[in-house]
């Protein structure tokens, strides 16, 4: 459940995209991760507050993976080759250890080089998971004034807006205004 203090317009996307969406509003840029208070809010919103420290080292690691994911997503949107080095560097700080649990079933545990890498590594690993599910489903909002991203889980894969209530309605209203303005000039 999202932290009620979280000011972002889009919350609840998969971890890697939720991290990417800690920057929003290209007209008056906003960034939730400018300080430790914002980082604590993000950790709380994504359910990691009890698992990850909220210190400067962890914040720096999370900003590193956010920049890496942003670069990869932008490369994908522009049809350019991706530069995986920055993401791979974060991934090198952890691993998933698989074991047989006491109940006889499989168990997994994330191990990182230190607690400061936990949130960053989980976000980087989540990005790989999204790629496995379908890189084409990682999308930027179609509204020209929105920089948010989402993972399209719609059945037909045709979602265009980060939020139909916000960006979708604004785009529809703008189209309607243009049509009626043209009709009045004719």
Strand content: 5-15%
In spatial order, strands of the major sheet run 1-2
* Count of DSSP-assigned helices: 6
What is the overall silhouette?
A: globular
What is the structure about, briefly put?
The protein is an alpha+beta fold. It contains 6 helices and 6 strands. The longest helix has 23 residues, at 56-78.
Architecture overview:
A hairpin with a 5-residue loop joins strand 1 and strand 2. The chain starts with 14 loop residues before the first helix and ends with a helix. The longest helix is centred in the middle third of the chain and has 23 residues, at 56-78. It has six helices and six strands; from the N terminus they run αββαααββαββα. The radius of gyration is 19 Å and the shape is globular. The protein has helices spanning 15-20, 36-45, 56-78, 85-91, 118-134, 164-185, and strands at 23-24, 30-31, 94-100, 106-112, 138-140, 149-151. The mean pLDDT is 92. It has 186 residues and is an alpha+beta fold. The protein is 46% helix and 13% strand. It has one domain (15-141, 148-153): Jann2411-like domain (Jann2411-like fold, Orthogonal Bundle), CATH 1.10.3300.
Secondary structure elements and their pairing?
Elements: H1 15-20, E1 23-24, E2 30-31, H2 36-45, H3 56-78, H4 85-91, E3 94-100, E4 106-112, H5 118-134, E5 138-140, E6 149-151, H6 164-185
Antiparallel strand pairs: 1-2, 3-4, 5-6
Helix pairs in contact: 3-4, 3-5, 4-5
